[in-house]
Amino acid sequence: MNHRTILHCDMNAFFAAVEQQSNPSLRGRPIGIIGSGARTIITTCSYEARAFGVKTGMTIYEAKQRCPQIELVVGNNRKYTATSTGINQIFRDYTPLVEVFSIDESFLDLSGSLKIFGSATRIAMQIKARIKHRFGITCSVGIAPNKLLAKLASEMKKPDGLTIIPPDKVDATLEDMPVGELCGIGKRTKQHLLTLGIRTCGELGRFPRQVLKKRFGINGEKMSNMGRGIDLSPVVPTSEKDEVKSVGHSMTLPHDITAREDICRYLLRLSEMVGRRARRYGVTGRTFTLTVRDNDFETRSVSETGLSYTNRSDEIYRAILTILERFPLDKPIRLLGVRLSGLRHQVRQYTLFPDDHRKEMVTEAMDDVNDRYGNFSVSFGSVLDSERGARVISPAWRPDGIRYVNVE
Fold it and tell me: What's the rounded Cα separation, in Å, for the pair 340 and 316?
């Protein structure tokens, strides 16, 4: 049987490592990367900070409680994007099959490269050395017969690790591995599996497939395969030709809000940003998702699919307001998110109706002005009095292709 050889490369504390490399005074010190807004969290932190218990997602207050001497650094996303792009250029020296999984993670299919460059271990060592030499940072690498196991392997030895799971060691590796270690099984799914008596991957792989399918639907069959280390998904090269699957933005608010008019104001701003990006990509969608996180960090997302496709900001906003009616706004809100999905590429058709044509012309004019002079130079009247400078990041931010986003 022919096995694939998949390499997963995960940069170690990427944002923090880039900052420490570019500023020697930060090296060897506990640092935390934060946003530039008044309300921000720890995006990532150095291993020196992690030794004190600082974790991604902590508030600044929590981080300083754990590590009073932590130094906070405002993130520079353009710097990280440039570094990530350079790293992926190194990957493409070894194979054209490079899938950018996130800004600091990539999958490489080395199956067709081994005869040229030698063993996967040799390729991995070369990649690690080149990244270290050029960028001064480290990565952890996993090598396995598929993407699921390669990602699992890269998590086993951090930082600066290299782990190989050969085909004949898959069963032994998974037998006592906690199910929560598998990519795709989150905390909630893990709890559901525990109610079935499933704690390890070995137990998951042996559990009756039909019971899993009945409990989890189509995902039950996928989880059964995951428990046995089966993953047939290919490494899909990331390029400008890749179709975007969703367009979304989320915003951590400068302060908790409760008033509906304030909530609507931020949702209008998010809808405008989503619509603008969708128009830039030439896509329309009809599935709208609203995400709300309250001050207890409970996060809820609700989606609704309409009958017609759109990328107009005002129509996205109206759809999001309809979803908002289904949220019990009984707690202060700290984060809002808007996403457009169910996309298709737009074929430009000029409308015969004067009102619709006028709206299209206004939308295009607003986009032109904002592209030239910056976001929200021209906006809807109802967002003009909202606090400028709220920091927004796309949840699907990636450095290559259509997923590239400049974060403000």
Answer: 8
